[in-house]
Design brief:
Layout lengths: L12 E5 L12 E5 L9 E6 L3 E2 L7 E6 L6 E6 L4 E3 L4 E4 L3 E4 L8 E8 L9 E6 L8 E6 L12 E6 L6 E6 L4 E3 L4 E4 L3 E4 L8 E8 L9 E5 L1
Parallel strand pairs: 4-11
Antiparallel strand pairs: 1-2, 3-5, 5-9, 6-7, 6-10, 8-9, 10-11, 12-13, 13-17, 14-15, 14-18, 16-17, 18-19
Amino acid sequence: MLLANFGFPAVSAVWSVQIVNPDGGKSNPYSIQVQPAAPGAGPTITSVSPNPVPGCNCSQTFNVYGSNFVAGANVTLRDLTANQTFSNRQSNYFSAGQITLNPNFNNVSHTWSVEVISPDGQTSGQFQFQVTATTQNPVPTISSVAPNPVPGCNCSQTFNVYGSNFVAGANVTLRDLTANQTFSNRQSSYFSAGQITLNPNFNNVSHTWSVEVINPDGQTSGQFQFQVQ
């Protein structure tokens, strides 16, 4: 008996084997049928959660449930309404029956799909789900600032911003428009939905400034201009 190790390509074909002795004697060719192994079961998506997905301009947990998910699979999300494709989404949990992602679906009502493609090319097909826009907080508005004009001073001084719909954690940004300088995330000494108190140093130069309030959800008051004299 003679044993040999040989890698056959994964295609259906008829091969033959023949033994040739050192003295030139040959055996008759012996035919061998090679058939590729049947592929494993393809991935299947049975559900996703949440569904519908609440719209949010942020990352959120999104679970894909099913079977036959294989490590190294390509998880593809598609915004079908906007005709956008997001391939090879990174997962933070992966098993044969569950994949957990943390995508940002934005806060708009669109139809999406998720597809799992195994490394051997087998696909779950596109499983559709909905993203439903949620009501955002009201837009922040600046109605006035005080003092205005601000007396120039090479020192910290109290500066009040009045308006509505200010949300805790908002980014209060001051800009020296004359000098083209931006000062983001100014710390406040007082904060409420209608008033923010800062203690900036505007320096003792006559410049045009602006203040902007940007809520954590990204909504902005726009730039409210004032003078330093």
